[in-house]
Amino acid sequence: MVIIQVVQTKGTLLLNxxxxxxxxxxxxxxxxxxxxFPTETVYGLxxxxxxxxxxxxxxxxxxxxxxxxxxxxxxxxxxLSRVAREIPDEAKxxxxxxxxxxxxxxxxxxxxxxxxxxxxxxxxAVRMPDHPVxxxxxxxxxxxxxxxxxxxxxxxxxxxxxxxxxDLTGKVDAVIRSSICKIGIESTVLDLTGPVPLIxxxxxxxxxxxxxxxxxxxxxxxxxxxxxxPASPGMKYRHYTPIAPLILITGRETMRRQMLNQLARYYRxxxxxxxxxxxxxxxxxxxxxxxxxxxxxxxxxxxxxxxAGVDIIIAEEVSFSGIGLAIMNRLKKAATRVLRx
Length: 341
Ligand code: TXA
Ligand code: MG
What we know:
- 32% of the residues lie in helices and 20% in strands.
- With 341 residues, it is α/β, with parallel strands linked by helices.
């Protein structure tokens, strides 16, 4: 006998990631329900992308602002022409080269995808995740799956099913219990509807890889929190908020070190519990400064700081190259204050 259901808490099923359990999860999606599933970036909260009512319930479960569009996930590259239209050659080329993988392409939305998915925008963001469980689930569901990160809005994205349970137990139909996410930071969102390719959100696929593949410079939209016309609706919200204030120190390394020492002295005198995020001089945190490892652990560190009840978090800048661009984007969004020395 195969055990499908592991636990049920407050109406949320905790499912295994074996084939039988995934068939059950797919059936839930087909019926208009919500299932949290693993991807190589972060856990997603999926619903049938073709079902407007199901898509609306994603926003309700997360407490997500209605004007922030969702990414549509495919299990097969050939589904692209159903969800998008007027697909430029560069999009086809990038999909062939980087899918499955952490790259979401913003294209013109087809009528197959309801406006609710894109919060009314004429475009749609699409990606094919590089994770066997995600691909099997989408395939079994038989429809593209709309999915934001499976966290409560404003919380760090979940990189383990435990994070999903912390935020969404009782609010979604099922959570798939699978391994932790390899990359740990969300996909790169690339807009291909304008005159030049534009990164709306730096993520798991480095800008350098995209520029090399396309053999041209691509832009990176600058986040302006509370801006009236952000390039991507998601950019105007301050995301990834830990409970304690986070101070991000940027500038030359020697100066950063001096600043860190001053801050640590000050807060220690006040009796504060200090959480150090990625501090280059801290030997025990060495893994913390390898950019790939830091990306993989970043959200989990932020959540742990909350659980540990730290009073203040201090983080240091990392290089903007490779995945560093995405790390710095998230750190800046999590920061209550950025100190440049
Ligand atoms: O790695 C990921 O991308 C994860 C996994 C689950 O695939 N998903 C994810 O989704 O991070 P979410 O909803 O947390 O972030 C989607 C981002 C938001 O910043 C949103 O504004 C942007 O993509 N986005 C989605 N559709 C868009 C569109 N049509 N135009 C511009 N930006 C869009
Ligand atoms: Mg998110």
